[in-house]
What does this fold into?
Amino acid sequence: MPANKKIKSILIIGSGPIVIGQACEFDYSGSQAAKALKNEGYRVILVNSNPATIMTDPGMADATYIEPLTTTFLEKIIEKEKPDAVLPTLGGQTALNLSMELSEKGIFDKNNVALLGASADAIEIAENRWKFKEAMEAVGIKTLNATYAKSFEEGLEASKKMGYPLMLRPSFILGGGGTGVVNNEEELNKKLKDAFTASPTQEVLIEESVYGWKEFELEVMRDSDGNGVIVCGIENFDPMGVHTGDSITVAPIQTLSDKEYQIMRDEALLCLDTIGIATGGSNVQFAVNPENGDRRIIEMNPRVSRSSALASKATGFPIAKFAALLAVGYNLTELKNDITGTTPASFEPVQDYVVVKIPRFDFPKFPSTDDILGTSMQSVGEVMSIASTFTESLTKAIRSLEIGKTGIRNIDNRFISLDKHQLQEEISVPRPRRIFAIFEAIRRNWPIEDIADLSKIDIWFLREIEKSFNVNPESTPTSILKMLGWTDEDLDNKDSKKELENNRVYKLVDTCSAEFVSKTPYLYSTNGSSNDDTASKQKKVVVIGSGPNRIGQGIEFDYCCVHGVSSLKENGYEAIMINSNPETVSTDYDTADKLYFEPLSWNEVKSVLDREKPDSVIIQLGGQTPLKLAKEIHNAGFNIAGSSLDVIDSTEDRDLFQKLCTSQDIKQPISKIANNEKELVESVKEIGFPVLLRPSYVLGGRAMRVVQTDEELNNYLNILASADEDGNPFKSGPLLVDQFLTETVEIDVDLISDGKDVFIAGILEHLEPAGVHSGDSTAVIPPYSIDKEMIKEIEDKSTKLALGLNVQGLLNIQFAIKDNELFILEANPRASRTMPFVAKVTGNQIIKAGTLLMLGYTINEIKDKTNYLNSSTKKIAIKKAIFPWSRFPAEDTMLGPEMKATGEVLGIGKDFGTALNKAYAAAGVEIGDKEKGVFVTLSDAEKPNFIEVVNKYIELDFSIYATEGTASFLKENNIESIIVGRADDESPTSLTIIEEKLISIVINTPTFANEYTDGWKIRRLSHETGVAVVSSVREAEAFLEAFLLQEKVLDDMEAIQNVS
It folds into this structure.
């Protein structure tokens, strides 16, 4: 049927900040849906708190609110915008849970807002584990033996009756949060508490464990006429017990017979019918016993899921777009497949290739956490590869991870010296490195059956990998070697290497196994004799993407790539994208004019460049990944757009950068370079403690530490050595040694330059004290406490540096102000994490403008010919970082120079206080929902600095709680406080006052991170319960401003289209 035109406006609720389990795949799905609905003539209202997304760009919706995702803010927006309907299935679990809460509170009924796609009843059945189990069993779909608990005590009793092992599954969760396998009573107590904490409805399903069974997912779409299609079948390489987000996955399904697949397919469609999903996409998961084929349905997500993005990219089928259009009344037979332009969406996609997804982890940033994988997701990103065979695709996926591995046959030094027992242990325990341990066992000719028994990985996959090791390269055609996962790095013969490269061809992802002509150039490389498309002779530019998400290089850089591609297309260039990340908007089939889904390693990139012969290659937009290819691109004769290789070297090379700063009269902290341990000790001695240490060429503050003693220095070297396969802390390059400036205010500057003129897009002031990584800091634009003279100096020094470097394109500079003196910390001639935030708030499209500057435009030409740089705003905007502490419960939440944040939120307001209040609310701290109390626990060195600010809290009638030592100091300064005991003392303690909601804020100045201290427990509990924690006078004073203006917050909401 045609679209429902009675509906005029539709509210889309976003997924909020990037967190583990809910990442940028929901930016991709939300963007796709918003575009589709706008094209149909609907007024689209979008609410999301994440400033780094394409979804929240002003052009994506008619009214975009970057506001906290709470029912309070959403109710106010609904009252203001009066949408006719809400689409709750595109913003992950966050949007689904909020929609249910709004429905239960009667807010939708009160405002006559209809739920599209899935009713509240259908969502309740799908998300409530017990109701889902009952519904499935009623129609004959087998589920696991289970019981349902609505309290901790009930769960304990039920678990003892069922026996171990058990699986705990909380209701209404994302990314497996709170789930876990329980093997004994000791584990049960802790994991059951975690499960109830994770469930917003305080309900947990306790079921028999099927650890070691095979796991499958089906992405299903259904329309209002009852038509259903399986978009993609996905098989997990890892067995049940490893969260599917942390598992290697393969599409299409490889190890089921056609009969088994068809039965599973029918059950998936019956599942949607039974639940009552009216329209849209859903994800259905099954477990299969490898011994006898016994099958169980595990769960169903009544929404576009994390796997939906993977399925969309794997097949070319735009799940989110079609889900939105089905929700407004279309059926699958009426919608055209965009890839072919002729076939309807009711044609199930067919793959004549194999897709492999491998997750990317960042465990080294969380050293207190064991990297064993379980049912709670811990990966921070993923890569996807496409090739003709499983082994070829697996090799490409490994190369895409950017972890220094070249493929299946790459020897891993971590396992060479292990004895048999040690290697068996590595294969038995699921960790990110397990796949490489399996390669080592196959290299040693272990029986495949033994490896399968240890790992519970299906023997078919292992036999396919084994073929790669059993082949003789001298007698095997290179075409076969390629299919078996060999790369030129695995070959010694030059002719064979050349032949392997010459046999590389590019095939189209066409959804139909070449049955119909593809109209969308979405390409992957494999072995063959003919290409599916040809390179054009148009004016063209290649943009190299940012690869897999990781802490320090996330969605912000994909945002920049998308804006760069948009700028190219808007200004008459053919835009070609190379990337390996299936979660992102940059790899959507219609973002660039041509997409190459390939690893971002030099061989694959060079092959694309040789084929396309672009006029320019853009490396400034994708973070550090493209910059690492700069020398190879330059040496191969390709033109790097904008800032030259010399500019990159001048900012990365310490000596060159120091000379430039000296010539421009820009002060720097004292710095040295250490190539070995002896030079390091000498450098530290010369500079004096404290020093900031870091490896060269890093992103996200990887392995950065502030070191204050010789003991800490030795510990740091040991940490670096343990992270290297050879135990050499200097293997990856020299260490940089900087004087650490204490008691400073840190500044970020984002600018663009054409080499003659400079446009400063934004100056951001950090709220946290010195030593906190910029990606983890709270950033304010415009600066709120810096005088005009210092602002002028920052502008002047930034301009001098940009022109001195001869920057053409983008530049991010970080400064520190100490005792009213300005010091430069570093400069990066590329896009930064803050540029999307700055562009969103100011309305100036600096990435689009910067892209044209790279191609030779001037700033004046851009101002004359485009609207990219014509905006301004009087609003104050504050970015707050979001951390994955709930996934890493052993970690201290104390911040430092190494970045830990996975995402960010934004608060915008007319005043500093309202903006900060919103930023806090978006980060999970709702100011005003707890008692007016402040808990003060200070280190001896910091106690005198806080007297004035504590008195300010007293003036506002806050109750002051303090530990014994701090309370004694406060009393000496005529400040009375309530003394609380240590964590393990009798109540009141430092923990009970938090649990009982007696305080709104903790002022804590930690000395060091250690899980045995009370400070560690205080910080952890505060995070879990939504209590603000600050460690500086500036932050404590800022919180007061947010507190004082809390009554104004809901009246200070404006669509982003009206902010600039």
Observations:
- The chain has a mean pLDDT of 92.
- The chain has 37 helices and 38 strands.
- The CA atoms of residues 280 and 322 lie 7 Å apart.
